[in-house]
Specification:
The structure holds two protein chains of two kinds. By secondary structure, chain A is mainly α. Chain A contains 30 helices and three strands. Classes of the chains: A mainly alpha, B mainly alpha. Chain B: InterPro entries: 26S_Psome_Rpn12, CSN8_PSD8_EIF3K, PCI_dom.
Chain lengths: 583, 275
C-alpha cells in the first residue's frame, strides 16, 4: 500500500496511525502457517479479500478526488460526515471510532428506507477501517448511546462484549457534541425506533472483535445467537448483513479445536445450519447469503476432504450469477480444486484462471491469489503445459512460488531426478498448500516431457538410450511407456520391436493445421465476451432518463413559445440567438 | 435380539468359512443392528455396539470380495465410511482402526480395475489429508494402501511390465487382493493392445506373446482375432491404423474451411452489433 501513504495528510496523526497499523497487521496474518495448512492460508486470503475494497477510505478523507472506484453511485451524508470528523484536529481515537461506527447507521437506515442493499454493503465495507480500533469499551459506548436502557437487544449485545453494567447515556447528549453536525442527524433518527439492522451490524462488529482476539468459543456461541436473531426478525433488508454473520460463524468453527481435518471438528456440526441457511436463501432469492453460504459449505467440505459431498453440492446448487466478485472468485477456486482432484484438468484450468483473474489485485488479497496461482500452476503442469515464466517474477508471488519454480523447471526439461528432489525437498510446503497429491501425479508428465524432448531431438533413438536417459528400471518399461505416449498423442513416432528403437515422424508445419485458427478464434471470443460483459456492467442512475425527458419537453415548450412570439413579431433575431445559446 | 445376540453372531461369523452360511449370518447381524439403531452411527450408540457394527460390515466387505461381488463390496464400504470417520475415542480403547486400511486399499484397487480414476484420486486425497493430520506417516508406506497406489502410478505412466511383475510374483498384501489380479491383467492387456495398434506398424507373433503377457502363440492368434488384427506371414498388422489416418485427413480438410467461414461470419455479425 505504499501508494497510499502520500495521501494521508500529515496534520492528522490519528489517521496516519490507523493506516500504519493496518498494513502491519495484515502482514502478520498472512504467513501464519496453521495445521491443515492450505485451509488456513486460503482463509487468510479470503479474510483479507472481504476487507480489501475500502482501505481507500482512509485516503478519501484527505484526498477527495479518488472517489468510489467500484462504480457505486454518488456518496452521501455519511461519508461527508466522516470527512468532517477527520477535519477536527486531535480527536480522541475512542471518540473517533465511536463516531465512525455511528456514521454507518444512517446508511443502514437508508438501505431500509429505499430497500437498496447497496447502502448496507457500503456500511459493511467501512468495517475494515473500524476493525483495528474495536474494543469492548467502544462497542459498549456505541450500544449505550444508541439504545434506550430498556432495550433487550442492547442488553444481549452488552452481555456479549462483557460490559453488562455500562450506563446508558441516552438521549444523545455529551459525547455527541464532538462530531458536530452529525449529532443532530443521528439524534433525530434515534428518536424514532432503532431498526434491527443496526443491532445486527453491531453484532457483526462484535463478531469481528472476537475473531481478531481469537475468542473463538464465545464467538461461535454469539454467532449462533445472531443467526437465531436474524431468523426471528425475518427481514429482507437484513440479507446482506446475514451473509456476513454466517461467514464469521463458520470462521469461528474452523478455528476451534479440534481443527478441521479431524472428523469431530466443529465444522462438521455447523453443516446442517449452513445447509438450512442455503435453502432459505435460495427460496428468498437472497443472493448475498446464497453465494456466501455455498462458498462456506464448499470450503467446509474441502477442509475435511469430503470431495464427493462438495461435488454433489455443486451439482445440486446453482451459484447466483450476479454474486459479488469476491464470492465468485472463491467459488471458482474451490470448483477448480475439486475438478483438479477429479482429474478434470481442462475444467479446473478454466475455473482457476478465472479465479486468479477475478481475485482483487490489492496487496491485502495476496494470500488468495497466491494460493489460487499455486494450484493453477500445478494444473497447468498436469495438462502438459509449461506455465509462463513471467508468473514467477511478480513481486507478490515470487517468494511463495519458489518451490513451484523448481518443479516447473524439472518438468520442463523432463528430468526425473530433479523432479524427485524438488518434491522431497519441499514436500512440507506442498502438503501445506494441499497440492502434494496433485504434484505426485506429475511424475508421468515428467516422463512424457522427457520422451517428447528426445523425440524432437532424435529422429531415431534406441529404447536402451531412452531407458538410461529417463532412469527407468528396464527396457521393457521404456517400450511400454513410449507406446503409451504415442497412443496418447504426446509424440508422433513409431516403434520397432525387433530392432528396439523409436523412430520419430517428421513434424508437420504448424501453420498447416487448424491450431493457429483456433488460437485466433479463442482470442476474438475472449475480446467479444469482454465487450459484452462491460456493456452489461454499465450502470445508469435511476430515473435519469425522465429528467432528460423533462428537460427536452421544457426546451420544446420554450421553442414553441418562441415560435409563437416570432410569429407575433415581438422578437428580433438577436434575442432569439441568445435564447438558443442559453438552452 | 440384543447386543449379546450380535456378539454371538459375530463369533460364529469369524469361525465359519462357508459362504452361504456366512451370508445368512450377515443378514441376521444386519437386522440386529437395525433393531439396535446402529446401522449408521448415532451419537447415542454405545461404544461396544459401534465396534461390533464395524466388525460386521468389515467381515461383510471381505466376504463379498471373496465372492467377487463388487457391488456388494462397494455397498459395505459406503456403510463403513461413517464408522471410520468417527474419532477413535468413541470406540472401546485398544480396538484400533480395525481393517480400515485393508478395506480402503481393496476399495482403491476396485476403483482402479473399474478405471474410475477420478474416484480413485478423490478417495486418495481424503486419505492423504487424514493421514497427515493423524501423523501416521505417508500413505504410500502402508502395506495395504501402498499397493494400489503403486499400481496406479505404474498404470498411469505406462510401466505395464512392473504391474505385471507385481501381480505375477504374487506379493499381494493379503489374499483378498489377488482377486483383482485377474481383472487387472485383462485391463492392462487391453491397454497394451490399444497402445500397440498406434505405436507399431507391425509386430512378429513371437514377440507379441511377451508383449501381451500371453502364455502361447495360439493365445496370441486368438487375442489378435478378437481385436480384429490381421495376421500375415507370422506378423500382425493393425488395419485400424491406416484407416483412421485417411479418414482423419479428409474430414479435417472440409471441417477446417467450414469452421473458418463460420467464424468469420460470426465476427462480422458481432462487429455489426458493436459498431
Amino acid at each position: 500500500m505504499p501508494s497510499k501513504t502520500p495521501h494521508t495528510n500529515g496534520t492528522d496523526p490519528v489517521e496516519n496511525g490507523v493506516n500504519g497499523t493496518k498494513d502491519v497487521e495484515m502482514k502478520d496474518d498472512a504467513p501464519a502457517p496453521l495445521k491443515g495448512g492450505k485451509g488456513k492460508k486460503v482463509k487468510e486470503g479470503e479474510e483479507e479479500m472481504t476487507v480489501v475494497v475500502p482501505p481507500s477510505k482512509g485516503s478519501k478523507l484527505s484526498a477527495p478526488p479518488p472517489k468510489d472506484n467500484d462504480g457505486d453511485v454518488s456518496m452521501d451524508g455519511a461519508e461527508e460526515k466522516d470527512g468532517e470528523d477527520a477535519g477536527v484536529p486531535k480527536v480522541d481515537p475512542v471518540v473517533k471510532a465511536v463516531a465512525d461506527i455511528k456514521s454507518n447507521f444512517p446508511l443502514l437506515e437508508k438501505a431500509v428506507a429505499l430497500f437498496d442493499a447497496r447502502f448496507s454493503l457500503r456500511a459493511l465495507r467501512s468495517i475494515s477501517s473500524i476493525r483495528k480500533r474495536l474494543t469492548p469499551d467502544i462497542l459498549a459506548q456505541v450500544i449505550t448511546e444508541t439504545y434506550p436502557s430498556t432495550s433487550p437487544a442492547a442488553k444481549s449485545l452488552l452481555n456479549a462484549v462483557d460490559r453488562e453494567n455500562a450506563t446508558f447515556s441516552k438521549p444523545a447528549s455529551n459525547e455527541m457534541e464532538l462530531d458536530g453536525e452529525s449529532k443532530t442527524k443521528v439524534g433525530k433518527k434515534e428518536a424514532k425506533e432503532i431498526i434491527p439492522e443496526i443491532e445486527i451490524f453491531l453484532g457483526i462488529l462484535t463478531q469481528i472483535y472476537y475473531l481478531d482476539n481469537k475468542i473463538n468459543q464465545k464467538g461461535a456461541v454469539f454467532s449462533g445467537y445472531l443467526v437465531e436473531r436474524i431468523h426471528s426478525l425475518n427481514r429482507r433488508t437484513l440479507d446482506s448483513l446475514s451473509a456476513r454473520v454466517y461467514f464469521y460463524l463458520s470462521l469461528f468453527c474452523e478455528q476451534m479445536a479440534p481443527l478441521p481435518p479431524s472428523p469431530s471438528s466443529p465444522v462438521v456440526s455447523i453443516r446442517p445450519t449452513l445447509l438450512s441457511a442455503l435453502r432459505t436463501a435460495v427460496l428468498r432469492k437472497d443472493i448475498d447469503t446464497q453465494s456466501t453460504v455455498i462458498v462456506l459449505l464448499l470450503r467446509n467440505y474441502l477442509s475435511t476432504s469430503h470431495i464427493t459431498q462438495a461435488d454433489l453440492l455443486i451439482s445440486h446448487t446453482k451459484f447466483p450469477e450476479n454474486a459479488s466478485n469476491n464470492q465468485v472468485a472463491r467459488y471458482l477456486y474451490y470448483l477448480g480444486r475439486i475438478r483438479a482432484i477429479q482429474l478434470r484438468y481442462t475444467e479446473a484450468h478454466e475455473h482457476l484462471t478465472a479465479a486468479t483473474r477475478k481475485a482483487p489485485s490489492s496487496p491485502s488479497a495476496a494470500g488468495f491469489s497466491q494460493t489460487a496461482t499455486k494450484l493453477l500452476l500445478v494444473v497447468e503442469l498436469l495438462m502438459g503445459d509449461i506455465p509462463d515464466r513471467a508468473t514467477f517474477r511478480l513481486a507478490s508471488l515470487e517468494r511463495a512460488l519458489q518451490p513451484y519454480l523448481l518443479l516447473v523447471q524439472a518438468v520442463r526439461v523432463g528430468l526425473l531426478d530433479e523432479f524427485e528432489e524438488a518434491i522431497t525437498q519441499h514436500s512440507a510446503t506442498f502438503r501445506r498448500d494441499g497440492t502434494y497429491t496433485l504434484i505426485l501425479r506429475l511424475r508421468q508428465n515428467v516422463i512424457k516431457t522427457g520422451i517428447r524432448m528426445m523425440s524432437l531431438s532424435y529422429s531415431r533413438i534406441s529404447l536402451r538410450d531412452i531407458c538410461i536417459r529417463l532412469k527407468l528400471q528396464s527396457e521393457e518399461s521404456a517400450e511400454y511407456i513410449v507406446a503409451k505416449a504415442i497412443r496418447d498423442g504426446v509424440i508422433e513416432a513409431s516403434l520397432d520391436r525387433e530392432k528396439g528403437f523409436m523412430k520419430s515422424k517428421e513434424v508437420g508445419d504448424v501453420y498447416a493445421t487448424r491450431e493457429p485458427g483456433e488460437a485466433f478464434h479463442d482470442r476474438i471470443r475472449a475480446c467479444l465476451a469482454l465487450h459484452d460483459e462491460s456493456v452489461k456492467a454499465m450502470r445508469f442512475p435511476m430515473n435519469q432518463h425522465r429528467l432528460e425527458l423533462k428537460n427536452a419537453q421544457e426546451a420544446r415548450e420554450r421553442e414553441r413559445e418562441m415560435a409563437k412570439e416570432i410569429q407575433d413579431g415581438d422578437l428580433d433575431e438577436d434575442d432569439l440567438g441568445g435564447e438558443f445559446e442559453g438552452m | 435380539m440384543s447386543e449379546r445376540d450380535l456378539h454371538s453372531i459375530l463369533q460364529k461369523l469369524k469361525t465359519t468359512h462357508n459362504y452361504a452360511e456366512s451370508s445368512t449370518l450377515l443378514s441376521r447381524a444386519k437386522i440386529t443392528l437395525l433393531k439396535l439403531h446402529a446401522l449408521t452411527p448415532q451419537s447415542t450408540t454405545p461404544p461396544t455396539v459401534l465396534l461390533a457394527a464395524r466388525e460386521v460390515f468389515e467381515s461383510g466387505a471381505l466376504l463379498s470380495i471373496r465372492a467377487k461381488d463388487p457391488d456388494a463390496f462397494t455397498r459395505y464400504v459406503h456403510q463403513l465410511t461413517p464408522f471410520y470417520e468417527l474419532s477413535s475415542e468413541l470406540y472401546p480403547s485398544g480396538s484400533g482402526n480395525g481393517e480400515k486400511n485393508k478395506i480402503t486399499g481393496l476399495y482403491l484397487l476396485l476403483l482402479l480395475t473399474q478405471r474410475d480414476y477420478a474416484g480413485f484420486h478423490t478417495e486418495l486425497e481424503g486419505l492423504e489429508m487424514r493421514a497427515s493430520d493423524a501423523g501416521s506417516g505417508a500413505v504410500e508406506g502402508d502395506r495395504y494402501l501402498g499397493y494400489p497406489i503403486k499400481l496406479e502410478r505404474w498404470l498411469m505412466e505406462g510401466s505395464y511390465d512392473l504391474v505385471w511383475k507385481a501381480m505375477a510374483s504374487g506379493e499381494v498384501p493379503s489374499e483378498e487382493y489377488s482377486v483383482f489380479s485377474e481383472i487387472l491383467t485383462t485391463t492392462i492387456r487391453n491397454e497394451i493392445a490399444s497402445c500397440s495398434e498406434t505405436a507399431y506398424p507391425s509386430l512378429p507373433i513371437s514377440s507379441t506373446k511377451n508383449l501381451l503377457f500371453l502364455d502361447s502363440e495360439g493365445a496370441v492368434v486368438q487375442f489378435a482375432q478378437s481385436r480384429g488384427w490381421v495376421i500375415k506371414d507370422g506378423r500382425i498388422y493393425f488395419p485400424n491404423q491406416s484407416l483412421k489416418a485417411s479418414v482423419d485427413e479428409d474430414g479435417n480438410e472440409k471441417e477446417v474451411s467450414q469452421m473458418t467461414i463460420e467464424n468469420t461470419l460470426g465476427y462480422a455479425r458481432e462487429l455489426e452489433t458493436i459498431v
